[in-house]
Structure formats: structure tokens, C-alpha cells
Amino acid sequence: MAATVAFAIADPGHWLAARLAAGSRMSNSSNGTGEVALIVGGGPGVSSSSARLFAREGMGVAVAARTPDKPVLEALEAEHGVRRYACDAREPGDVAGLFEAVSKDLGVPKLVVHNIDGRVGDIFRKPITEADPQLARETILNSTISAFLVGQHAARCMLAGDLPEDGHRGTILFTNASAAFKGYPLSGAFAAASHGKSGLAQSMARELMPQGIHVVHCPIDAAIGWTREDGTRKHWLAGETRDDDMADPDRIAETYLHLHRQHRSTWTYEAVMRPWKERW
Amino acid sequence: MAATVAFAIADPGHWLAARLAAGSRMSNSSNGTGEVALIVGGGPGVSSSSARLFAREGMGVAVAARTPDKPVLEALEAEHGVRRYACDAREPGDVAGLFEAVSKDLGVPKLVVHNIDGRVGDIFRKPITEADPQLARETILNSTISAFLVGQHAARCMLAGDLPEDGHRGTILFTNASAAFKGYPLSGAFAAASHGKSGLAQSMARELMPQGIHVVHCPIDAAIGWTREDGTRKHWLAGETRDDDMADPDRIAETYLHLHRQHRSTWTYEAVMRPWKERW
Amino acid sequence: MAATVAFAIADPGHWLAARLAAGSRMSNSSNGTGEVALIVGGGPGVSSSSARLFAREGMGVAVAARTPDKPVLEALEAEHGVRRYACDAREPGDVAGLFEAVSKDLGVPKLVVHNIDGRVGDIFRKPITEADPQLARETILNSTISAFLVGQHAARCMLAGDLPEDGHRGTILFTNASAAFKGYPLSGAFAAASHGKSGLAQSMARELMPQGIHVVHCPIDAAIGWTREDGTRKHWLAGETRDDDMADPDRIAETYLHLHRQHRSTWTYEAVMRPWKERW
Amino acid sequence: MAATVAFAIADPGHWLAARLAAGSRMSNSSNGTGEVALIVGGGPGVSSSSARLFAREGMGVAVAARTPDKPVLEALEAEHGVRRYACDAREPGDVAGLFEAVSKDLGVPKLVVHNIDGRVGDIFRKPITEADPQLARETILNSTISAFLVGQHAARCMLAGDLPEDGHRGTILFTNASAAFKGYPLSGAFAAASHGKSGLAQSMARELMPQGIHVVHCPIDAAIGWTREDGTRKHWLAGETRDDDMADPDRIAETYLHLHRQHRSTWTYEAVMRPWKERW
Questions:
Q1: Which of A193, B74, C78, D155 has its Cβ near the most Cβ atoms within 10 Å?
Q2: Exposed e or buried b for every residue in C14-52, given b needs 16+ CB within 10 A?
Q3: pLDDT in tens, C257-272
């Protein structure tokens, strides 16, 4: 069964109307207009913040998730004209289908964000002796393997087109965690998954930057607390944000956009972001 | 002898006129207006680019150099209203005087950029067995010790004032080289100096970020090629830039500004910048 | 189907004779006598060198491999009394069976070496756009997942026993490659696999060292050239060794042994080994 | 004034007798006999432990210190035949004189250990805003500059002789602290000094290893607790050692010796040592 389809395609008119409405709210920034951004992994944090910002900047935005019919993604569509896609990013066929569909629907993506953490519930805070091997394997497949597949297809799409005048074919950005550079206790599988994604990203950077693709690795060294309807910012596990002691995903998105717009004479490969009070 | 004075103070009217003229060219960005930026180390590359961009964004800008009467700095004054200061940044008294003078003339600096490489001519590409110990010592004093002094006074100034509503007392940014994270052969003294500055910056970041000061470390992994009057970009040693294969200091300044404006929930401590074609 | 069995168990007398003969060649080092070493991954390089050295030091040595009937492993049995086990280290059941069998046959292992590279033939030197996703996945499972399983069972075995007087329950050592700390171009999957193993090892070190298990990570930054029958040292891809420009696995084994014998007051977590001429 | 002299040279017979007595206690290890080791920086911890071990292994051992008439160094002479030298390692003339004197008295050193921390009393745990700039400068000169001078002269001596058959001209080992790789708060000057030494060592390694000199960098991530006369191990600031929770310098020396004896096909550049319970 073909798993990757533009969600709610049954009513394309619905999406189109939302897109047009969103368009009227866009800035007329010449930087972003016409560019297509694809965010793989869809939740209320970094993905939603990025989608909103990229849409406001005039990009056509696609978000892919295993379950694209979550309210938070439906809101992105309704309010920001973001197009939703169903995709299990561990599956080669799904990822191939996703890039094909997005390219056909919106255009070839110039900014691809891989935003999948990968952990499954019962792997959290498990001693190495007690971690379920099957969950460890899933965590690694969810994170590292999906990053490989998304990175591979993004690179293929970007390399296929003509070289733009500014030499920048596109940006592939991998969101990661502090486990990307430090293996903490009680999280062997996640450390493996996050380090693995980091190694992949670094290899891709060395290979693709000289071909005009800006590869970026952004470990977020913090819990991420997004803004709720009541104005508070919260993290499901770490509780409520106080004094900006969690990463605000709206601000992460701003740095993502800056990195995407860096000139090829001064590309930054890695940018860790952490709150001012974080211990490191 | 008092070494730190606002240069050309004999004709403050001259500076004031330039400042006002520059002001009329400023964007009316509410972000920067009223902020003061101090750049220590003054040349035609990163310092000049930063000074120009910060001035355009509405900041009051000071540049300190051992010899502030270079044409390139005079041009900053004439065209962008940048104020010049004489300062030997290895000398505690000079650095103390500099911060005092800038605070009095322009206001307490909110963005301080340390932009001193430190190498002296004959230390370049010397085997460890042949490097002159006196020049090695000078290189380390020029780079690491001046960074210590500038960082210390910047922190004192920023901590002295009231805490702003956004919790961001200011930004201290250290420009560095790839020698900050990799010790290359034939450059032992420079590796020591650059690593030393890196260690200092990291210690300051862990100490000062929880007090509201954003400490940033930016190793530039490239030769820096600035734009000449004829439009070409060149580096004195590495020759002419082709296809953006050297770092464009105007673009470095853009990332500096972005880092200065990051929200305290998502501060980036370190951002390496390198051209797309650079090997690393 | 039980996949893990002591190979050639059909003739245990054969193994026992070899073991006794090897014993007569052992040093009477009191350090090693009675200790059991298990090496997972069996080839002519680091595994064989380690097995020989550990046996000479008086340890009981087990080697596990997918195909334990290779001549090189048969020679370890015949000449050094090393016991061979069949094990597909990606499979949880296989690894569980391996530790059970070794513990029963030789005793609980005190030194466990994970020595699996993981690459499969056609993944070498492939651009990210051309690497077969299935082979990338296999590479990661072979390397990172097998390391997880081996590390998990090693930790369980070591933690189950009484705490020795010197507080050292055992050593878990992960052989790795330079891809563990640097992602090279044209090797995204291997960079992911090697970084993943590195993250796992570091997490395990932080978790297990305070429980008396010395976790060690040894990236070998070189081709490995083992000594052939004619006395030359060669690598299958990199050709013949000249002037010790490849890593000699006999020397790697010496450092492994040193690390295993370090006192718990001064444990080294990571030791990169590279030839004197290697560029890094 | 010539600052570097063999201390107690007024009575060379005294030293000779001690040397001969020590010799009779030496192992007849063929590895070490005839080699000369020079340890710069002399205290009761790593320096004394190294000197004792190297002497037991049959090396001729020299220790240099600003004040070589400390009882702990006199004991090294009396009990282990270690020769003492006065040297202020920040001074180019002193260091030149030291290498000249040792080469003349004992022979050209094959193993040189730089073992100077560099901190001066009142720099400990000072906020960046309060650290005395003069003490910061002294800390950096004591550590980084002395490492430069010692490394430079060691390299000159080692490169001057014939290439030994095994291609190993000698080992230069820099003891360092965890501040070499992590800049902790309240220790900006020490972070600068330790990072600086690290950068120097890495540059020297890349330059000198291909010339046959093994450069080694050993950050000790722990307080060092040496054994007192009553058998306890203590650190002046951190108190008494319990359960091997401080680094035992006798064990550090063992790893130094192992690293010195590594084969050039598998040199380790960096080995951090930390107690099993240390947080990192």
C-alpha cells in the first residue's frame, strides 16, 4: 500500500483556500518567496514553529508525519497553509514517495529539516542492563535510519536541478539532542541514535557542501517548551518553563532560518542551542 | 602615559558630524537603536564589516586598535560614524581606560567583539624547533591575554547595570581561527594562543551565561577575503577569492548580529564559519 | 533454533587438548590467570592478535564470529587454546546464548572486546545519493546494534558477581574506527554506525564506571595490517605496510591489555591509536 | 646569572653513590636501560611517581624544578638516584641550560615529561570579573609558555641524534588537567592556560610524529592524591582519598610508561585518566 500521500487530498480545494489565505498574511520577503521547505517529523514544538515561520517568510511548506491528522498539524494547514503528508520515515519507499509528492505538489524543496527524536516510550532512562533490545533498535531506526533516508532524497532532489546563481542548491538541517555530543548515563540507545545522526550529518556536510548543499546539525541542549494556548510554555516531562529555562521552539526556528540564509562563503555546520541557565 | 583615548578627540565636532550623517543612513530598526557595540582589534576585515553593519543597524559603534589612525578606520569614522580608540589590548591599564572612555562617550557597550588574531610576522609557518620563543610569547599575549582583559572588562560593565527585561545583559563575542579546535603543524604558538582563547571563552560562557551575558566563540575556518575598491575580494597571503572560497567578512558580521540577537532561551555558544569548498 | 553453540563441541576433547597445550606456553603472570576474555567478531587482525596475547597472559579466551570455522580461528584454537563460538551479534537471542555458553564453558568473562566494523561490501565509498538504504541499515545493525547487545550482556554478567577487592568488575572494550569522531565524505552509513557505537560506549562508560566496570573506546585511525605467513604486513584494500604506516594489531592488543589492567583510580575511557605517519 | 645547574653539584659523589645504589635496585628490563628521562616540574605527585617508576625501569632520571631542594626531591635523589636541576621553565635561557646540562650529565633525554600546572594561589576559583590580570598572565606563562620551551628543546635534542632502528626518537608527554578540554566556570585563566597547552601539544604531535617523536597529551580529570607516609592518599584541597576516588599518581606513571613504549604503528596521542567515580 502506498503510504505517502498528501493528507486530506480528498479535498484539495480546502488546502488551496488555506494556502491562499495564509499567503495574504505572508511578508513579501523576496528571500523566501517561491522556496519550498519540507519538515519531516511533525509535532507541536520545533516542527510547528519552523513551519509557521517559513510560511510567514513566503515559503511553500510541507510537513510529513506518521500521523498527519493530529490537531496541531491540522492547525498548521488551516492557519498557515502548510501541506501535510503521511510518511513513515524509516521506510525507503515512504521517503521516496514523500519527496516525489512534495516536488510535484509544491516544487523541489530547498530547505529540508529532519526533526525526529526517535525515542519510544519505554526506552527513557533505562539502565543498559534493562533496556529492551527491540526498543533500542527502534530508537536507532527511527532516528538514524530516517535521517539517512531523508538526507539521501533531499540531496538527490537538490543535486538534480540547475545550479542557482548564488551557488546554494539548498539546506539540509538535522535537529538533534545533546546526546549527539555527550553520551549520558541511562540512555545508551538514544546516545547511539543521536551520535549516529551526528556522524551521518558530518559526513554529508563534508561530501555535499562542496556541491552547493548546506548541511546543518543543530543539537538542542535543553528540554523544548512550546507556547500553550494559555501563554505558558511547557515540556511534557520537564514541567513548566520559568525564566526561559527551556528552549523556545519559535526561537530555534529563527536560527534555522538564519542558517538557511547564510552565504556560502561562511556556512556554519553546527549550532548547539541551549538556554542561558542550562548546565553543560 | 595614558594610552587609551578617543582618537581625534581634538575635533569632537568632526566625529559628531560624521555620526549624525551616518545616523541618517541608519535603518530605523528598533532592535539596535541605542545599543553600543565595541570592537577590539581594527582592520579591514571582520572588524570593519562588523562596524559597518552594527552602525547601519542603529548602534553606536566604537573600534579600538593599537594604531587607530589607519585609513581603513578613518573611513569607518567618516562614512559610518564609528568612533576610534587607541588601545594596546595586552595592557590592563589600556583596556580599563578603553571601557571607561567608551562608556562615557557612547554608553555602556552591550556587544563587545574581540577580534585579535595575535600572530606576529615571523611566527608564521615555523617548525617548533625554529620558532622564536619571544615571538611565541608575544603571540600568546596578543591573543589570549588580550581576550582575558577585554572579556573581564566587558563582563564588569555588563554586570554593573540593571537587568533588562529580556534578561540579556549583553554579548561578548570572540573571533577565533580553526587553530582554536585543531592544532596544525608548523604553528605551535598560534595553536596555543587560539586554543587558549577558546578555553577562556568556554569558561566565561559557563560562568556568565547564567548571569545574563551571552558569550560567543566564532572560529573562522578560512582565509578572510574582504572586498577591495575594485570589487575583488582578496587575502594578503592566500591570494584572490574565487567562487566564494574565502570567508566574506560582511557575511561573518551578519551571523555575529544574529547571534547577538538570539533569545536567551536558545543561545548558541559556538559557531564555526567556513566556505562551502573548505576542507575540514 | 539455537544459533550460539561452542563450535566443534562435537569434539570437546580436541579443544581441551589444545587448551592444555596452550597453557603450557602461558606465562605464569598472576595478573591474568583465571580471567576469561571474550572477543566478539573474529578475523585475522585485532581479534586474533588480542586472542593470542590474552591467552599468552593466562586468560581463558573465547572468540565469537558468524562463521567460526574460518582457518584463522581454527588456528587460534589449535595453537592458543582459544574457544570458538558461532554468533550473529545482531540477534538478541544469539548474544544471550553466547554469554551463557561462555560463562558455563570458561567462566564469566572479565574482559569483553567488541570488534565488529559492520560495513558490508557495496557500502564502501558510496556517495550519499547512491548508497543502498538496505546496506546502510545492515551496516548500522552490524555495528551499533551488535555493540548494544554485547555491551548489555557483558554488563549483566559483570554486575551479577561479587565485587572484587580491587573494585574492578571487568572491562568492556569497543574497537572503533576514525569514523567514530570524524564523518568523512562518501561514507555516511559508516559514519553513522561508528558514531553510534561511540555514543553508546560513552553512555555506558558514564553509567557503568561508577559500578566498577571499565568501559573503553578505541578508535583505530588507520588501516590495520596484520603479519602474513611470509612476514609482510598487509591490508586487503590499502596494500602492503611500509615503515609501520599501518596499525599492527599485535600492538593494538598490547594497549588493550594495558587498558584492561589500569587501576580504577586512573581509568582511560578513550584511546585513539594511529601510525606515526598518519595524517589527522 | 646562570639559573640552571645540577643541584648539589658541589657534591657529585653524593649523587653518584645514590645513583649506583638505586641501580642495584633496578629491574634489568632491557627496555629502559640506558634511556634518559627528564621530568620538568617537581612535586610529590605525578613527578615523583614517574621519577620512581622510570628509575626502577633502569632509566637515568632527571627532575627539574624552580626549587629543587625540596625534601620530596631530595628523597628521590637519595632513594632512587634521580638527579635534580634548578630551572625556571618560563625562561628560555633556563630551559636551554637544562637540556644542555642533562644531556651532558646523563645523556640526551628520550622521554620528556612536562608536568607543570601553572596556577598561582590567588587565581583559584575567581570569577572572571575578580581575577587579578597579573596572576592570569603568570598562570598562562607558567603553563603554556613553559610547555612551549620544554617541547621545543626536547624536539631539538631528539631530532639531533641518529634515527634509531625502531624509528622512535623519543616521547614528549604533557600532563594536563580537565580544563584542557572543558572550560569550567570560575577558572578562566586556568582554562586558557590548559587549553593553550593542549593546542600546542596537538600541533607538535601533527608536526613531530612523522619525524619519529611520539607526542602525548594526558589530561588528568581528577584531584591527584599521593600516598603519604601513613599510607593514606590525600589532596591538599580535596581532602582524603576514599575508595580510589582520586587519581593515584603511581598509576598515572604506569600509563605514561606504557605510552612511551607504544610501537610507532599505534601511537596514542591523548589519554585522559579519571577515577571510576568521577563525574564527567
A1: A193
A2: ebeebbeebeeebeeeeebeebbbbbbbbbbbbbbbbbb
A3: 999 999 999 999 999 9
Per the structure block, which three cell numbers stand in for D53? 617508576
Interfacial A residues in 143-202 facing B (CB < 8 Å): 167
User: Which residues are CB-contacts of C230 (< 8 A; sequence separation ≥ 6)?
Assistant: none
Q: What is the pLDDT of residues D183-226, one digit of tens each?
A: 999 999 999 999 999 999 999 999 999 999 999 999 999 999 99
Mean pLDDT of chain D: 91
**Interface touch C275/D265, C-beta < 8 Å:** yes
Question: Contact at 8 Å (CB) between A70 and A84?
Answer: no
Of D244, D265, D271, the CB nearest to C268: D271
Query: B233 to chain A nearest CA, in Å?
Result: 11
Between vectors from CA A217 to CA A213 and to CA A223, what angle results, nearest 5°?
150
Q: Select the residue of C179, C199, C201 nearest A179 (Cβ to Cβ).
A: C199
Contacts of C151 in chain A (CB under 8 A): 128, 188
> Is the minimum CB–CB distance between D255 and chain C shorter than 8 Å?
yes
Residues of chain A with pLDDT under 50: 1-3, 8-11, 23-31
pLDDT tens track for C130-157: 999 999 999 999 999 999 999 999 999 9
Are B95 and B157 in contact by the 8 Å Cβ rule? The answer is: no
Q: Give dist(CA A102, CA A62) in Å, integer.
A: 7
pLDDT averaged per 10 residues in sequence order, chain B, 280 residues: 44 55 45 84 96 98 97 97 98 98 98 96 95 97 98 98 95 98 98 98 98 98 90 82 95 98 98 98
Q: In B, which residues are within 8 Å of A272 by CB distance?
A: 268-270
Tell me, letter by letter, the H, E, C secondary structure of chain D: CCCCCECCCCCHHHHHHHHHHHHHHCCCCCCCCCCEEEEECCCCCHHHHHHHHHHHCCCEEEEEECCCCCHHHHHHHHHHCCEEEECCCCCHHHHHHHHHHHHHHCCCCCEEEECCCCCCHHHCCCCCCCCCHHHHHHHHHHHHHHHHHHHHHHHHHHHHCCCCCCCCCEEEEEEEEHHHCCCCCCCHHHHHHHHHHHHHHHHHHHHHHHHCEEEEEEEECCCECEECCCCCEEECCCEECCCCCCECHHHHHHHHHHHHCCCHHHECCECCEECCCCCC
Contacting partners of chain A (3+ CB pairs under 8 A): B, C
Residue with the bigger pLDDT between D231 and B147: it is B147
Q: How far is CA A264 from CA A201, B246, C84, D84, in A?
A: 18, 9, 54, 57
> Which A residues 44-73 touch B at CB under 8 Å?
none
Interface partners of C (3+ CB pairs, < 8 Å)? A, D
Are A63 and A83 spatial neighbours (Cβ–Cβ below 8 Å)?
Answer: yes
Rounded Cα distance between B120 and B142, Å, is 9
pTM: 0.93
Strand pairing of C60-65 and C83-86? parallel
